[in-house]
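Re: the 436-residue chain
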Amino acid sequence: MSDKKIVFAGPVSTRSGYGARSRDICNALIELGYDLKIVPLAWGSTPMNALDDVKDKEIIARLHNGNLETQPDIFIHCTIPNEFQTIGKYNIGITAGIETDNCAPEWIDGCNRMDLVLTSSEHSKRVFETIQYEKRDKRTNQVMSTIRCTKPVQVLFEGVDTTVFRKLKELDTESNIKKTLDAIPEKFAYLFVGHWLQGDLGHDRKDVGMLVNTFLSTFVNYPKNEKPALILKTSMAGFSLIEREAIENKINQIQEIIRDRGVAGEFPSIYLLYGDLSDSEINELYNHSKVKAMVSFAKGEGFGRPLLEFTTTGKPVITSNWSGPLDFLNADYSYLLPGSVNNVHESAVNNWIIKDSKWFTVNYAFAAKTLEQCFKSYSSALKRTSPHKDYTLSKFTLKNMKEKLQEYLENTNKNAIMQNEQPKKLVLPKLNKVTK
C-alpha cells in the first residue's frame, strides 16, 4: 500500500484504444495499492459502455466527478499532449503519441507542462525528443526562441491482458463469433482490425483502402473455390448504419478501380464485421480456425495494440516495418513489410496528423507476394511465427507493464511533490473532451 494519493483522468469508460489503455493503467494502480480517484472523460464519438463488465467494478468504485478535497500527490492525464493539464503536485502525461515523424507545437507545449511524459513506443519518444520549432518575430523574422521538449519522456508499453487474450483450443459452440465465421465458405481468412479513417485511397492512416485493393488484386484470378477471404473488423469511429454503408461503398469503388484496369475474374470475398465486440469476443475472433493471419498496412502507429494481442495466438502477423509495432514485433517471428517514408497526403491532414509530416507506405507489390506466400505455404508461415506467442508472454504482458509503471512512480521526485504543495481545497478544472 502506498501513501501517495493519485488522481487519474482519462477516457476509462470508452470503447477506444485510449479507453483500453486507461483501464489498464487504473487496474495497475489499484493492484499496486494506491489511493486512487478516477475522472472519466469522453473520447470523440466512441461508445461509453466499456465499464459494463463485472471485472471493472474496482474502477467503477473509484470514479469521481466532483471537486477534489485535497490536491493529489500525483495527477495522471491519459490523452493527447495538447490536452495535458497540471492538477497534482507531480503531473504525469500518458499518451500513445504520434503516428508520423512530426507533431504540432501544441503537443510539445503540452509535454512541457508535465513533470514526466510516458508514451507507448520508442517511435513516439523519439519524435517528442527530437522535434524543434523556431518562434520568429513577425516583423523582423528573427528567431526569438526555440520550442522543444524539455521534460523527461519515457516509454511505458501497452501490455496484453493474458486473462483475456490467449490461445484457445476451441471456441464455445454457442459463441456468436464462431457461428458467424463457421457460416462463411472460405477456410482461410486474413483479418484486419482498426478504424477506416479519413484520406483518399492509399492515404488513410491504416491504409485500409490499399489493403483491400492489394488483397482483391492478388487473389482475383485464383480458382473460385481456392480463394482466401478478408475479414475487416472496422468502423469509422462509430457503429452507425450510415458509416457501415459508407465503408461498403468504399469497397465497391475499389473494385470498380480494379475493373477499370481491365482485370476480369471473380473477386475474393471481403466480410465486414461491424459493431461493438467485447474483448473476449475479439479474442474468439483471433482464435477462430478460419482466421489464419492478421494483416495491416498502417502508415503509422503510436503502438498498435491489436497486433500485440494477436501475437498470443502464434499465427502470422503481416504489417508495416515502421513505428510503434517494431517495439514488440520480433522480426524473426513476424512478416514486416518494407516500404518508404513519404509526406502525409493533404486528404489525411487534420489537427493531429499535420501538414509536412511524413509516414510510411508499404511496398504493395512486396505485400502482395507476402500475402500469397502465407496463403500457399501456411504451415511454413505458422512454423515461423508460432514462437511469437512465448516471446510476447515473456516481455509484453500487463504484469510487465505494471512493474514498469511502479518503477516510474517510485522514482517520482519526492522533493518536487513537497515543493509543489498547494492549498488543500482544490476545484477540479474542467477537463476537455478529446475528439481525435
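The chain has two domains: 5-158+398-419, 176-395.
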